[in-house]
Amino acid sequence: MKKIVIAIVAILFVIPSIKAQDEPNPITTAAPFLLITPDARAGGMGDVGVATSPDANSLHHNPAQFSFMNSQYKVGVIYTPWLRELTNDIFLGGFTVANRINDRSAWAASLKYFNLGEIELTDGSGFPIGTEKLNEFSLDGSYSLKLSDFFGMGVAMSYIRSDLGIKSADATINPVNTFTVGVSGYFQTDEQNYGSFNGRWRGGFNIANIGPKVTYTDGGTENFVPTNLKLGGGFDFVLDDYNRINTTLEFTKLLVPTPPIRDEEGNIIEGKDDNVGFAKGMFQSFGDAPDGFSEELAEVTWALGVEYMYNNAFALRTGFFHESDLKGARQFFTIGAGFRFKSTELDVSYLFNASDVNNPLENTLRFSLAFNFGDVYEDY
Questions:
Q1: Three-class SS state of 266
Q2: Looking at residues 349-354, what average pLDDT do you find?
Q3: What is the 3-state secondary structure (H, E, C) of 133-178?
Q4: How many CA atoms lie within 13 A of 361 on its CB side?
Q5: Cα angle at 95 between 110 and 201, to 5 degrees?
Q6: Measured distance CA(349)–CA(368) in Å, rounded
Q7: Contact status, residue 188 vs residue 379, Cβ threshold 8 Å
Q8: Distance between CA 265 and CA 6 in Å, rounded?
Q9: What is the dihedral sign for C-alpha 119, 8, 157, 81?
Q10: Rounded to an integer, what distance in angstroms lies between the CA atom of residue 80 and that of residue 348?
Q11: Chain centre distance of CA 221
Q12: In principle, which of 46, 164, 295, 339 could form an S-S bond with 289, CB 3.0–4.6 Å?
């Protein structure tokens, strides 16, 4: 029988910016499920996506990409099992609908639903007293516009609900309801000749989940939402009409203040006060680490992804993700594959843990499905 502790473990595992257990200074946020990479294509390339070619899940990685997508309509479905070695009913699921309105603009909308499973409650004698279902979800929308033939920008808005309260056990824990916004940019060059092969450069940025602080309890501590910055670049090696190798390097930083180190009386002895508004906290996050610049660098994760594509019909992928031992110690390799049947795309991925810290996606296959409809564009 599943216990309440399973839910607690699940919540802790989805906080990707937390430090190792022997570190005294973690960065935590509300609704950390917003940082989970939802799709298997990115999941096969070390979770990169801000500078890859557009796909059905660009709303998570970089909404500006939609103005460059190669079909008039895209519909995507994702399913990611979570903590599969502990339980079988925790997962991230959802779908996306995108429409390229014309040559220069596009809109998209998505739903992401994080189900933390059904928890059976018992009293002190072990008798059942009911069940609880914990969940979080976000409704997202975006609009993107090409500002030139090579560069576009996007804006996004999300409604977020996080319901983690076990009502029959603690009625003081309230659901969180909030809104966030984001801004992104994406560029890609025309295909050019580089001697024995052709190539194309890509680049992008995304500042996501900009929003006010929230609290799970009446009058309780306010928590930041996981505002984050992604920067990335890539190059496509177009070997011939059938073979292409896409490479992408991506950096990510959480734009949330680092908690200062305090003495026994609560006075700050290193770092800066993290009890600030969300806007100030975004800027403060670039220079508030108690250990100075070295700790700021440790808060930046990086990932490298490679995708081999044959005839735009079959793909093999691999990647590596690295996070500092001081800030969570997530390090893993990924592999994946993609298949395209006319207008249908199926992607799968698998993760190999490379650190001593358990990863909630170990020994788990991830799936995503996409459908393309309407007119075909030549930007891809």
A1: coil
A2: 93
A3: EEEEEEEEEEEEEECCCCEEEEEEEEEEEEECCCCCCCCCECCEEE
A4: 30
A5: 75
A6: 9
A7: yes
A8: 34
A9: negative
A10: 10
A11: 25
A12: 295
pLDDT at res. 126: 65
Q: What is the per-residue pLDDT across 168-224, written as a single tens digit (0 to 9) for each? A: 555 577 888 999 999 999 999 999 999 899 999 999 999 999 999 998 887 778 899
The residue to which tokens 């996606």 are assigned: 361
Q: Which H helix or E strand runs over 256?
A: none
SS3 221: coil
Token pair listed for 105:
């603009």
Residue 4 phi, psi (nearest 5) = -60, -30
Specify the length of the chain in residues: 380
Coil/strand/helix, residue 320: strand
8 Å CB contact between 320 and 313: no
β-strand partners of 182: 156
Predicted TM-score (pTM) of the model is 0.88
- 274: closest CA among 256, 299, 291, 286? 256
Exposed e or buried b for every residue in 31-54, given b needs 16+ CB within 10 A?
bbbbbbbbbbbbbbbbbbbbbbbb
Q: Report residue 276 CA to chain centroid gap.
A: 25
Which tokens go with 288?
């508030």
Q: What is the pLDDT of residues 302-324, one digit of tens each?
A: 999 999 999 989 999 999 999 98
d(CA 21, CA 325): 11
155 CB neighbour count, 10 Å cutoff = 15
Q: How many Cα neighbours within 13 Å face the side chain of 2?
A: 20
Phi then psi for residue 302, to 5 deg, are -135, 155
